[in-house]
Amino acid sequence: MLKSFKIVAVLEGISYLVLFGNMLLVKPFQPEIYKTLLYPIGMAHGLLFIAYVLLALLVGSKFKWSFKTLGIVLLASLIPFATFYIERKYLNRTA
Questions:
Q1: How far apart are CA 19 and CA 95, in angstroms?
Q2: Which of 56, 52, 15, 63 is closest to 37 using CA atoms?
Q3: What is the pLDDT of residue 89?
Q4: How far apart are CA 79 and CA 75, in angstroms?
Q5: Would you say 10 and 85 are in contact if contact means Cβ atoms under 8 Å apart?
Q6: Domain count within the chain
Q7: Class of residue 69 by CB neighbours under 10 A (exposed 0-12, middle 13-18, buried 19+)
Q8: CA spacing 20 to 30 A to 77: which of 36, 52, 57, 87?
Q9: What does pTM read for this prediction?
Q10: 58 in helix, strand or coil?
């Protein structure tokens, strides 16, 4: 389960960056391509976000994380690049 969470954490972070990249880099110059890419990228990111939250709760329960640690791990899903930090700092320490 921890390995799955590590993978999802990295993929969720990547999907977040791709979603922002699409919004910031593609939308101003190619609005039609932006619209075409938005749905599949958004859907992938949404599914990865849900998987991240569910796995965070399961892993946190299994490893008896404190409320503070669980809160930090969950908050990381909302901040770009933060899931990469969490994967390094908290998930490697848990293993």
A1: 30
A2: 15
A3: 81
A4: 7
A5: no
A6: 1
A7: middle
A8: 36
A9: 0.86
A10: helix
In the block, tokens 């908290």 appear at: 90
Provide the CA 93 distance to its chain's centre, in angstroms: 19
In degrees, rounded to 5, the angle at the alpha carbon of residue 16 between the alpha carbons of residues 93 and 56 is 35
66: number of Cβ within 10 Å = 9
Which residue is it, tokens 């954490």?
Answer: 9
Domain that holds residue 30: 2-94
pLDDT digits (tens, 9 = 90+) for 17-32: 999 999 999 999 999 9
CB-based contacts of 46: which residues, under 8 Å, 6+ apart? none
77 with 3: CB under 8 angstroms?
no
Q: Is the pLDDT of residue 83 over 80?
A: yes
